[in-house]
Amino acid sequence: MPVFLPPISSSRHPVLRALLLGALLVQACGRPDAGTSDEADAEGEIRARAAVTVGREQTDTVTDVLHLTGLTAYPAKDVLRATTTGYLVAPVPVPGQRVGTGQTVFTLQTKESRTLHLDQITGDPKLRFSGLIRIPSPRGGVMATVDKLAGDYVQDGEQLGTVYDQSRFGFVLDVPVTQLRYVRPGQRCRITLPDGRVLAGQVAEPLPAADVSVQTQRYTIRPVGTVPPLPENLTVTVDLDKTAPQVASTLPRSAVLADETQTSFWVMRLLNDSTAVKVPVQTGPEQDGRVVIRSPQFSPQDRIVLTGNYGLDDTAAVQLSR
């Protein structure tokens, strides 16, 4: 702002005139240099550019997959129970032991037999009752549980152990009622074990009941091919194809951004080497880390920001990473 001095005689007020001239010099020296400010703004703009990497849309063969959770199960199992009151006689099976159809698994001795030692009397051929009661397995399988030890006193009807029929091993799958149209008997599926192994399976029959609390219907799944020994109630992932394989345009998952509610999606497309703009997209299913882009249709020359796009505004200044 210019300062106007009143006419002052130099001979009458030399000191006052010197002070005013000094103030003008200080004001002139304190004004910022316009050229320096512009250079600083330009450097700040360069520092504000986001380093990004770019890629292009590609065409893949994808399938819309339904991911559900299943459990291992042994639907055919037999509970072996005591048929009388008495004592368990050695040997007693151990968990994991295989038994055959009709094989004696447990042997009971009645109280009277133990008191009279009838099992040791062999001289009288008319005495055919030894007091030993044999409990066989109705089918071949493996001992899943053994609840009693040799010498234990058991009551009539008390559970002694459980035999699982491994030939009837399978999986149970709880399907939400909203997804029932995608599951049908005879449909092929993929079963992923917790250690990453993948087994082939086939949807069997549905069970005629639904869970009231969570509204799901249970299906049984039979494995196809060789199955490793697995315990019951092991959680697995079951994948079923909702649609047939189809050709679609895809982008890496990192290229697609979304809002907090996961209802709006967009990507950042380069206008030139230093500017990226926000483009809303309609997404489809995701497979192997790539997301199907239903619309819009990008051209092969369009460059999409793959990394460094998080938090960018529309028409953002970017810098390509080499």
From TrEMBL:
Coiled coil regions in record: none
GO MF annotations in UniProt: efflux transmembrane transporter activity
Gene Ontology CC entries for this record: efflux pump complex
Protein name, per record: HlyD family efflux transporter periplasmic adaptor subunit
Annotated source species: Hymenobacter persicinus
